[in-house]
Design the sequence.
């Protein structure tokens, strides 16, 4: 018997007023899958994440997270934004940010001993337990992203959605982020939006290509030519020396202006 999908989009369409953002999106992501979402600026990538989170409701079609509506399943979803919008001068510790992941699971307003244990364990998982008492604002970009992943783990998320987690970190931090994501507990579903095709070529197993319509591919089946067929002439590809697994070109998805975006 096939496993219940972690994320299931069935004929999902969504528009901002008269402007379609997604049209007939139909795909399944299974428990433990490692997936990258790519596409041109404004193609619907962030809209797809917001629909999965239940922050937007589809105009047509159905979305299920482990067989439930996104609203009912929200406790099983962890979200990692590009960056947490906090005043750098705000005196919040690293462990306090991780404890935010426990808010929806508390019976009362205060963090319990178990909440704190799970927060420390999540920091150990991302190798930052030694920074628990440090101010969050004092961390590097890569360390902040690792803390936000720990926040999702502390909330016992089964699905982690990451919106361009590599956007504000240096190459060293990016490599560490990839290593952390690859080392997450077996069974956690990881879906990340990225404009960097190195994420696709070197790490993930499947690719969701989004430009209003949605196409799911194994990583090895993705090539520059296939991306161009899917997205059309408006998509520019920046070629690199590396090839994708299974052959084919390796390129970045770019908007006509040559800029990435949340989509």
Sequence:
């Amino acid at each position: 018997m096939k496993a219940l999908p972690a994320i299931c989009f069935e004929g999902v369409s969504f528009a901002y007023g008269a402007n379609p953002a997604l049209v007939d999106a139909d795909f399944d992501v299974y428990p433990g899958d490692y997936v990258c979402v790519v596409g041109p600026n404004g193609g619907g990538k962030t809209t797809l994440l917001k629909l999965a989170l239940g922050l937007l409701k589809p105009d047509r079609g159905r979305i299920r997270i482990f067989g439930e509506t996104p609203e009912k399943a929200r406790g099983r979803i962890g979200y990692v934004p590009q960056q947490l919008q906090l005043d750098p001068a705000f005196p919040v510790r690293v462990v306090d940010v991780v404890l935010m992941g426990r808010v929806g699971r508390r019976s009362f307003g205060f963090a319990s001993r178990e909440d704190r244990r799970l927060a420390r364990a999540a920091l150990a998982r991302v190798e930052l337990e030694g920074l628990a008492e440090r101010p969050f604002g004092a961390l590097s970009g890569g360390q902040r992203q690792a803390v936000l992943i720990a926040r999702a783990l502390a909330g016992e998320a089964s699905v982690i959605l990451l919106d361009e987690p590599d956007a504000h970190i240096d190459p060293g931090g990016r490599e560490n982020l990839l290593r952390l994501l690859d080392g997450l507990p077996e069974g956690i579903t990881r879906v990340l939006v990225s404009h960097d095709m190195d994420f696709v070529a070197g790490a993930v197993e499947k690719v969701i290509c989004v430009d209003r319509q949605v196409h799911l591919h194994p990583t090895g089946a993705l090539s520059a030519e296939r991306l161009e067929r899917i997205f059309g002439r408006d998509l520019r590809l920046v070629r690199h020396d590396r090839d994708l697994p299974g052959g084919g070109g390796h390129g970045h998805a770019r908007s006509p202006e040559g800029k990435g975006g949340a989509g």
In short: DSSP finds seven helices and eleven strands in the chain. Residues 141-154 form the longest helix (14 residues).
